[in-house]
Amino acid sequence: MESVQKNIENRISRFKKGELIFPADFRGLGSTTAIKMALSRLTTKGKLRRLSHGIYYRPKMDALFGELYPNPEKVAQAVAQKEKVRIMPTGSEALHALGLTTQVPVRRIYLTDGENRQIKMGKTYIEFKHTTPKKMSYQGKLSSLIILALMEIGTESLSDEVLKKLKHLLLHENKSVLVKDLAMAPTRIYDFIIKLIAVGDDQMVKPDR
């Protein structure tokens, strides 16, 4: 009968390079302790890389950049799925997700209804911050990101270009959903968005704060 490690190694070979791997992926192949020991040995052998506690991945090499880390956004989504929690990007990560900035955040912050957690990937940090059910209740695909981003970074230092893009995105949100999300937003964010939507594109200036 093949060992737990050998069975796990055979299964790992079917994962794509760079793909995330969790101990739960091998349930049924051995005890929890045996699985953890096998993953530890495979990491020592270079078959796996340990990203964080309970998170591994198959090494992926690039001819120019060398070994590559998994995509941070995919890591966050995969961890949330495995832990059966919800996450929502906030702050700079929300702006990046909306395409409002090309600058890749070094610290990617997600609100969650799960536990606080940090994952370090080279110079990049993924942080899950436990928050209130209210903040996890925003429904709009666009408005939720905008509201959470503005709550984190404020409204005072946004360029006219970003303001125009924000208005464009808000006007493409489902109206009924936008109304519901705005009803839950802090007063300062509500006022800011209402004034932003109302101002004409030919007179785009920062709304009164």
* Low-confidence runs: 202-209
Oligomer: single chain
SSE succession = HEHEEEEHEHEEEHHHH
**Largest β-sheet summary:** 4 strands, mixed
Number of domains: 3
CA radius of gyration is 21 Å
Strand content: 15-25%
The residue fraction in helices comes out at 40-55%
- Summed up, the helix count is 8
User: What structural class should be given to the helix and strand makeup?
Assistant: alpha+beta
Strand order of the largest sheet: 6-7-9-8
| Shape summary | elongated
Number of strands: 9
Mean pLDDT: 88
Q: Distance between the terminal alpha carbons, to the nearest Å?
A: 70 Å
How is this structure best described in words?
- With 209 residues, the chain is α+β, with helices and mostly antiparallel strands.
- The protein folds into three domains: 4-60, Arc Repressor Mutant, subunit A; 67-130, no CATH class; 141-146 and 154-203, no CATH class.
- It is built from eight helices and nine strands.
- It has helices at residues 4-12, 32-44, 72-83, 91-97, 143-153, 160-171, 175-184, 187-198, and strands at residues 20-21, 49-52, 55-57, 60-62, 66-68, 87-89, 107-112, 117-121, 124-130.
- A hairpin with a 2-residue loop joins strand 2 (49-52) and strand 3.
- Helix 1 crosses helix 2 and helix 4 (91-97) packs antiparallel against helix 5 (143-153).
- The protein is elongated and about 70 Å long.
- The N and C termini lie far apart (70 Å).
